[in-house]
Amino acid sequence: MDRPGIERSQRESFFGALDYWLFVPVLLISAMGLYALSGVLYPDYANASAVFVKQAGAVMGGVTIAIVLCLLDIPTLKLLGWATYGVGLVLLALVLVDGYRLPGASADSWLSIPLIGTLQPSEIAKAGLAMASAFVFEDMKTKRITYPAGVLRIAAIFLPVLALIYKQPDFGTMIVVVFMLVCMVFTWGIRLRYFLITVSTAILAAIPIFLFVLKTFQRNRLLAFLFPGLDPTMAYQVDQSRLAIGSGGLIGNLTGTSVTVPVKASDFIYAGLAERMGFVGTTALVVFVFFFLARAFYVASHAPTPATSYMAAGISAVFAFHFIENLGMNVGLMPVTGIPLPFVSLGGTAMVVNFFSLGILLAISMERNRTQEVDRTV
Amino acid sequence: MTSRRRNAERKVVRRPEGRETGGEGSSFFARARRLLRDRYGLLALLFVLCGVLIFATTASLQLTPTAGVEIGSTTGVSQQRVVKATRGDIYDRTGQPLAVSSTILDLSVAYAGLDSASLNAMLLDLAQMLEARGETYDDGLADHFTVGPAKFVGTDADTAVWQTDKSLFGLKAAPTGTVVSYYDKTYVKTDPYVFYRYLRETLFQIDAKYNDADAYRIMRLRYVIFKNSWAFRTGTPIQVSTDVQSTTVHFLEEQNFRFRGVLSSTESRRVYLPDAKYASHVIGYVGAISAKQYDELSAVGYSPNEIVGQTGIEAYAERYLHGVDGVEPYNVWTSAGAAGIFFSEAAGRASVSGYDVRLTLDMRLQKVAIDSLVKNIEYIKQKQDSKSKNDADSGAVVMMDVRTGEILAMASYPYYDPNDFANAGSDPAAAKRVAAYLADTKDKPMLNRAIMENYAPGSTFKPITAIAALESGTITPTTVVHDPGTVDIGGWTFHCLEYPLHGHGDLVLTRGMATSCNIFFQLIGSWTGIDQIDAWGARFGLGEYTGVDLPGEVRGIRASKEMKKRLRMNPEDQVWFPADTAQTAIGQFDNSFTILQLCRYTAALANGGYLVTPHVIKEIVRSDGSILVPETLAKTKIDVSDANLAAIRTAMKAVVTDRQGTGRAAFKGFPIAVACKTGTAETGLEDKSSSNALFICYAPADNPQVAIAQIVEKGVWGSNTAGIARDLLTAYFGLG
């Protein structure tokens, strides 16, 4: 049902249709991130201003990408989804090629590409997976294909990526991908009993396998991969992080001293932010983050087509996982893994990829605003 | 809003689980029930709950006052260590680097509260890790004591000295007849096996579970710490390994909980580029601070284990090159429960790199100077000559810009390679060469023959005699002096070298200079008197410090009545004879000057009577390229008449142009007019070795730019060396 007049033209104009509830919290998070980063960088980095300028540039670039993506319609999103998936897969394969692998990186998950610089292809692959598989889920939903055919396709999409990530090996990212898949399947509408059966079977199967099938060293290795926090080296990171957060107090540590936290600029940026901005800052950040997450799921649930709905759910799940795991690890609630805080942690390509994902969410939200009547009273 | 969404979705899909209960009304409970049925809502709710948990944890951390107190009380007690400043670079006037610094990584062990057993276990772990990675670590113990089987390396006396060293073991000689046990802590242990058990069980308490090889690994490292135990206990990290690979350091940092107290640091090490050896006497080298240097430099904050410049520019510009050491806090894992009190790297004070030194030397000319010096010494050595003993072996040459005093080349042969000094600690071959340099009293490669040695100037002194004679009005440029072949001056008979039977005949100044006739200068010198010659020598800077910016310059000796008294003990020998004046006039007797003084005086002849200050430092440059200390040009006008100076210059030009000129052959066909003077200086050892060959010149003769002074020791004739000056001028004027 189209409404004529001002209302409609407003909806069809860019600024009228833009989802400010989604966009503004991210801008605020990024701004707080840059502010926190400037405090962390200056004592610890020799070329702090250059690093900071690069990070600020990545935010600008990310915002631009997000705004450009807003303008896409659903067929284009489908194309872009498959393209992103393809690029992600190729880049993941490239990591295994010697010439492109970033020398000296701890895991083989970094890629070094001339002109572009270093990036983690799994970041791109995650976005590609959510976008591409969403359309398969839609086909299953609308019975355009049978369930077995659909499951086969989903497997065909996910398994190569998981295999390549396993090869790196990067168990943290594997968990994120599996978590995303679970969230997508869950929102797709799998019967709860199947869902519960699958999850409990997996857990029940894992325990005997873990306890009896695996040898001790394999068990330890798996434990170390899954929970590096068990490693005694990590204990002090969390202790230091908690100390730093505590030293922030109500309005931030203004004495000029700071607590040394390893990788404070990237993985432990929340500690740096808490130290600099205190309870006021952390409250604001947590509110912005979870408002953004809630809004992202709202967008998913109100998406104009099933495919965009699952797509948004997958992307939102990845965001949720990153935010919760990173913040949780900073305060000592979650094991330490190398997962950065989206829109905040130091790292140009991750920043750009995060804004890319945000752009997809924004595009879905705008598509809805354009094509569907909106009840302005709510 | 929920209903709208549902409407939208229903258009396309039908959800498997019923939505029928959704529309039960809009009470709070109904809405909540709908939310729980909505899977998106469920997920969002789950995540927001996580958010609440995170928020609550953060709040509990930040709103607990003790958290802030903890940080406040820990920042003040950090351990600190010194960060050595990077030494400044040295480069030539064109910017070609000669001495730079390279960064290497070191490992140290700091006190981390470990007890003896844990320390031993950690050190063994460290030693095995280092060996597995092909690193070396301190082996000072092996200089005195080795195992398998246990034995002392040195003689009994050496061992006794080592064991009685009060700053080390501090043992006392055992009274005869005493049986010294390993657990005794008082007496020297002469039995190696007893000493082994003393180290192992008494001193380092190495557990019996370790085998001998592992125990010795522990001993090696414990010994390093033991040697510095006071510093170690007071928080100074003790260096145990140097020049380790970065991968080893990364490994250690990852495993820092395992290698407690092990720290890495960077150290800059002096590296001399290959060309630096051609200018080694100017650049100098660095080495460990000596006791004497420490006495001087401790006042400006030097520590007893500093690396400082030992000679050359490295020593002269030490205060610019050295930089300011910084202080940084360091963090170690302690065995105490309070692990992980880490301090910000922002605390402390960054080190400030030393300033760079730009030299006036032009390495292109410097290399020509060295090459030509070597080539010509070799040539003179081979050349057949009745007076030559074919023993030429060393020399020096200085080339100076006559307008500014900038030294463009200062070469001395034989020379040394400064890298041997820089590497002596790690490279035994280099250490051997260093020992050879220092022990060589015959060739004296360490000696900068341009400034550290006095040489009789011989005939190169004659322009001074001539100026004294002209300025005192004794002669004019046109005065004719007769050389009969033999003259008697104050009872001494002097012969003309070239024509002892009939002499050169009638000579004016120009011809006298060109032929370098001794009789001519002995006569005019005698007429002028020693006091005038002495005074004019002083005005031209001979026998005076030139003030060059290099350490070790000698003053030289200018013959005078005063000097004769000062140099001779016996009153009978102190009497001045007219013959002494005659000898002084031809650059012999007590006269002996540095090559640099000769060059500076030649420059004064060339530039119209200005005495410049020779220097090799062009400027001191900050690391950002801006200039800290600009070049200072100092010159003083000598009160000499232009007409007389012009007469000397005409005479020196004639040395090349006159058909009998002593420099004629050397500059035959040379496109630029050169003014010069040869000098053959008797050393008084002519029965054993050849005379020294000297040469001074400047060019172009009519508009002088550069002056050169040079010597080839035992070079027989001054004119023999002219090839060196010719090569340098060819290179300078780009004629090659």
Features of the shown structure:
heterodimer, A: 378 residues, mainly alpha, two-stranded antiparallel ribbon, 14 helices, 2 strands, 2% strand, B: alpha+beta, Penicillin-binding protein 2a (Domain 2), 5-stranded antiparallel β-sheet, 26 helices, 24 strands, elongated, disordered N terminus
Globally, the shape of chain B reads elongated
Give average pLDDT of chain B, whole number.
83
Category from helices, strands and their pairing of chain A = mainly alpha
Main beta sheet of chain A, described? 2 strands, antiparallel
Indicate the overall shape of chain A: globular
Query: Rg of chain B, please?
Result: 39 Å
Query: Kindly, what is the distance between the CA atoms of the first and last residues of chain B, rounded to a whole number of angstroms?
Result: 93 Å
Overview of the structural elements:
The complex is a heterodimer of chains A (378) and B (736). By secondary structure, chain A is mostly helical. Chain A has one domain. In chain A, 72% of the residues lie in helices and 2% in strands. Chain A is built from 14 helices and two strands, in the order αααααββααααααααα. In chain A, strands 1-2 form a two-stranded antiparallel ribbon. In chain A, α5 crosses α6 and α11 crosses α12. Chain A is globular, with a radius of gyration of 21 Å. The two termini of chain A are 18 Å apart. Chain B starts with a helix and ends with a helix. The N terminus of chain B is likely disordered. Among the domains of chain B are: 47 residues; 150 residues, Alpha-Beta Complex (Penicillin-binding protein 2a (Domain 2)); 121 residues, no CATH class; 180 residues, DD-peptidase/beta-lactamase superfamily (Beta-lactamase). Helices cover 37% and strands 17% of the residues of chain B. Chain B has 736 residues and is an alpha+beta fold.
